[in-house]
Amino acid sequence: MKQKKKFSTTPYLEFSRKQWAILRDSIPMTLTENEIKSLRGINEDLSIQEVAKIYLPLSRLLNFYIISNLCRQTVLNQFLGINKQKIPYIISIAGSVAVGKSTTARVLKALLSRWPEHRKVELITTDGFLHSNAILKERGLMKKKGFPESYNMPRLVNFISDLKSGANKVAAPIYSHLLYDVIPNRIKIVQQPDILILEGLNVLQSGIDYPHDQHHVFISDFVDFSIYVDASEMLLERWYINRFLKLRQYTFSNPNSYFYHFSRLTKNKATTIARGLWREINWINLKKNILPTRERANLIMTKSSNHSVQKVRLRK
Known about the structure:
Elements: E1 12-16, H1 17-22, H2 33-39, H3 48-80, E2 89-95, H4 101-112, E3 121-125, H5 133-138, H6 153-164, E4 170-176, E5 181-190, E6 195-199, E7 225-230, H7 233-249, H8 267-290, E8 299-303, E9 309-315
């Protein structure tokens, strides 16, 4: 008896690099080589070709979604008979440590702000919503920095909720990677942006990820479009170690750096420590808390060995 062919089902449309690049259509490049250079992460070699083939099609797609969202808001305001409220379109960017989330966020901010509509785009990282080192030490969580329990989630959720409610000004705490801590009494005022890009490890997580903190509203409840930046675990470990070694040469060498003592280590010793930090902390966080959220994203960008995106999956 002839067996029926089985078809696999997936909520995603999958594109190769070449297929995705075509979707740029005729969108012009609005960034110069020097501007792209300034957007690169310490461990990445972002090229103008990468921006053209990957990020311009993505910015085009997001522009379509944003236009549609504005139309929906207009319809609601007309139905309610109220004046137009300025509610930002929120884009979240998730993924592992060292995968390049920050670069993705910076590039999208630059591109989206240069569309003819000249929209106001703000970028916020969730690092500022970490508990202070003093609190983390008190709770025995310094080695779990970046895990769900290390964040002041109610404060982060309130921040996003206030923005989505049309608040005129909302304050976000500021984190210093030099000091490896939240800066006391320092805030960034976010004032009614058209678009907010929220970048962080935890932005796709929901209730099942916070059994220790029984609140009922989560960041993902307010996000309009979510992106997950993906790569193999082997590449992530390599990138983490390489980034650590570069930070050792530059940021860590500053006497004010929290990690100043690492700058005096030999390269071999520093590599051993970086590998240990990856495997004992960051890999565990990836497997337990970050990777399980990948399939919640609207779009998944998968990177290859040189940080270039080779595959894009878009939710149908």
